[in-house]
Design goal:
Blueprint lengths: L1 H25 L2 H5 L11 H11 L3 E8 L2 E7 L6 E7 L5 E7 L8 H5 L4 H11 L3 E8 L9 E7 L5 E7 L5 E7 L7
């Protein structure tokens, strides 16, 4: 009993004098070997886009977060290829869900000619409304008479979802709406 008391007291002195480094030395070898590694950083929209483009080069058409994965659509620079990819948010691993190599290139001409990319639209939207980009989607629907733009969804630290448009030519950011609903796709 006295021996355990002396050993505990000696360990306490070593820990107090040596700090965390001494704790690692004083810890049993098995505990040091089995310590969990630091958790990887969560993949951001920008990171998911970069990972997707590394796997399937081209231009991001859309990107959205769904739980633990990012869904990314990429169009090849000639407009003839289209890939639907998932990017694991925990580790950045890319999985090809489907690839189509006989797309109509004319269907994607506005996207391919846009001066502002999806990645630039995300940066502009987050600069205008701080938070984390959760989705970006190309919108070339000219039925409303508006120029092509990016629809970007940003989730603020306050839990609110902010929807904005980023002009595909100028990069100008305009608000679409504010919402308290975390799952509002606008």
């Amino acid at each position: 009993m006295k021996r355990n008391l002396y050993v505990s007291a000696a360990a306490a002195v070593v820990l107090l004098a040596g700090g965390p480094a001494a704790a690692a030395v004083a810890a049993p070898a098995d505990a040091v070997r089995t310590a969990p590694a630091a958790a990887p950083a969560d993949t951001t929209a920008e990171g998911a886009a970069a990972a997707a483009l590394k796997d399937y080069p081209g231009v991001v058409e859309s990107l959205d977060r769904d739980g633990d994965v990012w869904h990314v659509d990429v169009i090849t620079k000639d407009g003839k290829g289209h890939a639907e990819l998932t990017v694991d948010a925990a580790n950045g691993k890319v999985t090809r869900e489907s690839v189509d190599t006989d797309e109509d290139a004319g269907e994607h001409k506005d996207l391919l000619a846009a001066k502002v990319t999806a990645e630039q639209a995300v940066k502009a939207a987050v600069a205008a409304h701080p938070g984390e980009a959760w989705a970006v989607e190309w919108d070339s629907d000219d039925d409303n008479g508006k120029a092509a733009s990016w629809h970007v969804e940003v989730r603020g630290s306050d839990g609110k979802t902010w929807d904005g448009s980023v002009d595909a030519t100028t990069g100008k950011v305009t608000a679409r709406s504010d919402s308290d609903d975390d799952y509002d796709n606008g």
